Amino acid sequence: MRQNMKRLDLFPDTAKIANDSLSIAGHNAASLADDYGTPLYIYDRATMDASVTAYRTASNANYPGSSDITYAGKAFFCKAIAEWARQNQLWADCTGEGEIVIAAAGNIPRERRLVHGVNKSANDLESAIQHAGTIVVDNPTELRHIAKLFPARQSPRPDLWLRLQPGLAVETHHAYTQTGQHDSKFGMTADEIMRAAAFCKDNHLPLNGIHFHQGSNFRDPSPLLPAISLALDLVRQIGLAGNWHFCPGGGWGAAYHEDELPQPKIEDYVRAVSESVIRGCKQRGLALPHLHLEPGRSLIARAGVAIYRVGAVKRRGDKTWLLIDGGMADNPRPALYGARYSCLPASGLGREMTERVSIAGPYCESGDVLIEGLLMPKIEEGELIAVPASGAYQLSMAGNYNGARRPAVIWLDESRARLIVQREAADDLLRRDLSIS
To answer: Are residues 190 and 288 in the same domain?
Structure first.
């Protein structure tokens, strides 16, 4: 039971063990699975709201200037999540036309739609110019395309920020989650930033911000500080003044496994960034910017839980496999970059942990392994398992490998369960297909 209670800290704020079963926001997890089927993704609004409050409280306590929170659509975006972002007065980080459409469907105000992307297509740029308030420019080629498109666009035009490649990465568990190093595909070097700023001035483009991002799911904010210093040096040279905007990215971590507890403190991250910006601006004689923080997973990862049903158990000597009805099609993170997860059974939580298991999905890949070597009670066919910290970068990366259909998603809000994304059906796999006969 002690191990169960530790793992419970990975779950949403409202998660409890009641009557030997897991409940979330007052709902029995097994009953939700029976009602909606599996695999099933659950999002707990109370946890998401509490994360927003923690960021706002930390910002108000540590940063005297104006600030905002930007939700990363790439973590997971659907109409209901966009509506939640609007209700919480968040900005929305949209990568490309598809996420811009979702933000608009959720009625996020135009001025709070921020468009990212390392190689924005013509359609992406046209959609951003028509429907967004800010475009984060990744490269000089993109900037030239924007300059050509702007004359045909009447007011209002989106503001432009330049994305800096600071040449510094944060410490993450895998190179694939680092974005700020010198050989990264993202952003512009300091020299390119200077040339891009001059281009904006010569072409009367509305440049009013600088952005950078160094990596995702990190716990130590100290590598951000030299990058902030470099960015502020560029701001002074460029001559940004007045109501200018500054975003030192996001990517603050969340615990996925009990070995990673305690959860990283939002206050530590916000304080380090705020103090560095305040100190750096004072040293350079700069007005404090409108500060933007881009928490993605730290807003939503712990709010999400994935429920799977065990279809078969293979006990072979020292190896026990639990084979479940989902895996890399709905959560490719373990296969992509070795992400670690934990889990609990949905019921029978009072049982002793006696067996180390590996948990794998049904797909035709040896890499379709969700969890390796986790201590669990003896699990049998037909049981349900609940995987915490499943709210970010899972469904947004999901696919149809082996004809998999994306799972249903439900929203728990004040003890109500509502379907917000329907489960894909077999017919959905054929919807875009055309016959050759």
So the answer is: yes
Regarding beta strands 319-324 and 304-316, do their DSSP bridges make them parallel or antiparallel, or are they unpaired? antiparallel
**The model scores a pTM over 0.85:** yes
Domain that holds residue 225: 46-299
Residues 86, 230, single domain; the answer is: yes
Residues 354-395: tens digit of each pLDDT: 999 999 999 999 999 999 999 999 999 999 999 999 999 999
Contacts for 145 with CB less than 8 Å, ≥ 6 apart? 120, 122, 125
Q: What is the tens place of the pLDDT at every residue in 31-50? A: 999 999 999 999 999 999 99
Q: Is residue 126 part of a domain?
A: yes
Query: Which residues participate in catalysis according to the annotation?
Result: 364
Our count of domains for the chain comes to 2
